[in-house]
Amino acid sequence: MNNPKSKTVHTMIGPDAIIKGPMELEQGLIVYGKIYGDIATNGQVRVAKNGLVDGNIIGSNIHIGGTVSGNIKSRNQVTLKKSCVLKGDISYRKLHIEDGAQFEGKCDLLSD
After folding, report:
1. pLDDT of residue 77
2. Which residue, 2, 21, 80, 97, could crosslink 37 as a Cys pair with Cβ 3.0–4.6 Å?
């Protein structure tokens, strides 16, 4: 999975932005604001420390530093940063949870 497109962020939701409804993207996304709806992308998803997502997330690599209420499905790796608050289930190939991350849900390792 050395697709350069999956490692690039092309869309940014700024700290004052509030999105209501689902988002579908081809490339990566970084969230500093709030999204109330599902996110689906072929790229990576990053939820910054003050970002919020109330919905499910599907992406290649997913890094959570903020708050997510919803399920996460990654085709590759999920990283829960120490500032993360996640209420939902995770499907992944690789999982990294930093000390201090808050996670309430179950984990499911995806098979090849």
Report:
1. 96
2. 21
User: Does the pLDDT of residue 62 top 60, yes or no?
Assistant: yes
Measure the CA–CA gap between 92 and 89, rounded to whole angstroms.
10
Q: Which residues contact 111 (CB under 8 A, 6 or more apart)?
A: none
Whether residue 83 has pLDDT greater than 80: yes
Q: Shortest CA distance to 78 belongs to which of 99, 108, 53?
A: 108
Nearest CA among 64, 89, 97, 58 for reference residue 76: 58
Q: How many CB atoms neighbour CB 56 within 10 A? A: 18
pTM above 0.85, yes or no: yes
State the DSSP string of the chain: ---GGGG-EEEEE-TT-EEES-EEESSEEEESSEEES-EEESS-EEE-TT-EEES-EEEEEEEESSEEES-EEEEEEEEE-TT-EEES-EEESEEEE-TT-EEES-EEEPP-
